[in-house]
Design brief:
With about 325 residues, this protein is of the alpha/beta class. It folds into 2 domains: about 200 residues, 3-Layer(aba) Sandwich (Rossmann fold), CATH 3.40.50; about 90 residues, Helicase, Ruva Protein, domain 3 (Orthogonal Bundle), CATH 1.10.8. The chain is about 45% helix and about 15% strand. The chain has 14 helices and 11 strands. The strands form 4 sheets. A 5-stranded parallel sheet has the order 2-5-8-1-9. It has a two-stranded antiparallel ribbon with strand order 3-4. Strands 6-7 form a two-stranded antiparallel sheet. Helix 2 packs across helix 11, helix 9 crosses helix 11 and helix 12 packs antiparallel against helix 14. Belongs to the MoxR family.
């Protein structure tokens, strides 16, 4: 596979998802980058903005197994990863695998469950393995988490721990559609009575696990020159010297940004990374990793504004 074929594959996936989802192009672009760079994505937005439909349609267009977990306050870690249950007929314990054993996992309303249950995802997201009663079980190489969360201002939510947030490659804010897009949603979706499934809207698989593996191999071969590496390093280290921030980005964030920039370059049909790849992805990669200082919160500063100022302050190589 060539970078041109990766670009064509990305366009084909977007076209299929667009059969069911109106708008949200930037969200789907970030999900493609996350897929081809081995990352996970967190979608934040109010209910009814198609977050679940995006994830389901995305998985169907890729030909991946789709699993969903609805996070609630009483959800336990065993409900996610599974457990060894005693079978009275055989007088032996047998493994019951949880819904995490899939390829694309939708963690719906992930911030409605306490941190103890959220922590069940940490090992899976980092190492793509799950440990049950001391036994390590491998997940699919294509395992990807698409998590949704309600805005923190809503009631009955728990802020995600920093360790959990750092395992997400991107955090994307899913906003309300434009007036024209919303009119199209009302006109098309309002005229249907069938369930909101990708198949009902004509979304067809245009890839499979083998095809995705080929694309990822191409992404890994995309060139990353020293000047761009230095630019990534400057952005990450620059978040640690800002008075408005109590906590900056981790070294893991820099490595993830480099991998994501490679994926964006390939999806754009290039076999080399340019500074614009890094600059375009930096806001979604940094916004959930940075913590405002108490003084900045009192002054009403927004994390988005701080991220933008850091990116503007660091000069990109020419």
């Amino acid at each position: 596979m060539t970078v041109e074929e990766v670009q064509a594959l990305g366009q084909a996936i977007k076209q299929e998802v667009a059969r069911a989802v109106v708008g949200q192009e930037s969200t789907i672009d970030l999900m493609l980058v996350a897929l081809f760079s081995g990352g996970h994505i967190l979608l934040e937005g109010p209910p009814g903005t198609a977050k679940t439909l995006i994830a389901h349609s995305f998985a169907h267009a890729l030909g991946l197994d789709f699993g969903r977990i609805q996070f609630t306050p009483d959800l336990m870690p065993g409900d996610i990863i599974g457990a060894n249950l005693f079978n009275f007929q055989t007088s032996q314990f047998s493994l019951t695998r949880g819904p995490i054993f899939t390829e694309l996992l939708l963690a719906d309303e992930i911030n409605r469950t306490p941190p103890k249950t959220q922590a069940a995802l940490l090992e899976a997201m980092q190492e793509r393995t799950v440990t049950i009663d001391g036994e390590s079980l491998a997940l699919s190489d294509r395992f990807m988490v698409v998590a949704t969360q309600n805005p923190i201002e809503q009631q009955g939510v728990y802020p995600l721990p920093e360790a959990q947030l750092d395992r997400f490659l991107f955090k994307q804010s899913v906003d309300y559609p434009s007036a024209a897009e919303e009119r199209k949603i009302v006109a098309t979706h309002g005229a249907r009575t069938h369930p909101m499934t990708p198949q009902a809207w004509g979304v067809a698989p245009v890839a499979d696990a083998a095809r995705i593996a080929e694309a990822i191999a191409v992404v890994n071969g995309v060139r990353l020159v020293d000047e761009v590496i230095d630019y990534i390093l400057a952005l990450i280290r620059g978040t640690r010297d800002v008075a408005d921030l109590e906590s900056g980005a981790s070294p893991r964030a820099g490595a993830m940004l480099a991998g994501a920039a490679r994926a964006r370059a390939a999806l754009d049909g290039r076999d080399f990374v340019i500074p614009d790849d890094v600059k375009a992805l930096a806001p979604a990669l940094l916004r959930h990793r940075l913590i405002l200082s108490p003084a900045a919160e009192i002054d009403g500063r927004r994390i988005e504004d701080v991220v933008t100022s850091i990116i503007d302050m660091i000069e990109a190589p020419r």
